Amino acid sequence: MATLLGAKRIGPGEKGYIQASLDTKGLRNTVKKVITVSTNDPRTPLVVLTIVADVEREFILSQREIDFGRIDSSSGRTRELTISQAADRGSRVLRAESSLETAKVRLEPVNGSDGHQMRVIVSLRERLLPGYYFGFIVVHTSSPYIKEIRIAYRGRIIG
Amino acid sequence: MMRMLNIGTGTMLVLMLSMCVACQMDSGPRVVFDATMRDFGKVVEGQPLKHRYTFTNRGSAPLNIEDVRST
User: Fold this and answer.
1) In which domain, by residue range, is B29 found?
2) What is the dihedral of CA A10, A6, B53, A41, to 10 degrees?
3) Distance separating alpha carbons of residues A4 and B38, to the nearest angstrom
4) Cβ A150 vs Cβ A66: under 8 Å
């Protein structure tokens, strides 16, 4: 949390302010932040200011990453997860793309979810050389706060 | 005579008391915040929260904000 003090010295009868800014990215559930202010007022040398918020996730992922594991010629190369819209704020999943050419991604709405749940289907491309593969799936949303959701994927092709 | 003396003493006492109270109210700086807590209720993750805490120096001497620390 960041704070900004209007003025350090306030004359008799004058007003002052302390501005508090809190970035809620990565925060969950009930959040309580405290600001302590030291003054030369002998009766109130310390003032405690509090900010409280109940932070809700806008989108909930069924899993945070995709692990293809070891892939041989008989293994399936497709995995999927689900993104659910948690808070009813009207934001939607718009599109998804892979950070690398090694994977393809497509979105499909979950039947009966009225667009509030999307399947993110990720496939490793055919004919990749043996080796380790890492990348990100970037899901773009219409949320003004969480514009992108990054989902890591990894896998090892052994033949 | 005694009655006049009593009235005089009473007036003096009231005067002294009020001076004392006024003295206590005004001497030195006095910080008074309009509110010390802000509850934003339900917010969406990523939403930036901003709040301005305002205060007044209701004392007779300059108020110094010596330190501001946040968790």
Assistant:
1) 2-57
2) -30
3) 16
4) no
**Residue B58's pLDDT is what?**
96
| Sequence-ordered list of residues with C-beta below 8 angstroms from that of A33, at least 6 positions apart, any chain | A1, A20, A22, A50, A51, A52, B70, B71
Choose the weakest-confidence range: A15-29, A39-53, B24-38: B24-38
Residue B69 in any domain: the answer is: no
Our count of domains for chain B comes to 1
Across the beta sheet with A15-23, the strand order is A2-5, A15-23, B48-57, B31-33
Contact A110, A44 (CB under 8 A): no
| pLDDT tens per residue across all 71 residues of chain B | 556 656 666 666 555 555 444 445 558 999 999 999 999 999 999 899 999 999 999 999 999 999 999 98
> Quick check: is B68 in a domain?
no
User: Six-digit token pair at B23?
Assistant: 């003295």
Min Cα separation A32/chain B (Å):
9
From chain A, the residues in CB contact with B50 under 8 A are 19-22
Check if the interface score ipTM surpasses 0.95: no
Minimum distance, in Å, between the CA of residue B25 and any CA atom of chain A: 11
**Ordered structural domains, chain A, with CATH:** 2-55 (no CATH), 59-157 (2.60.40.10)
For residue B62, tell me if it sits in a domain.
no
> Using CB atoms, which residue from B29, B57, B68 is nearest to A35?
B68
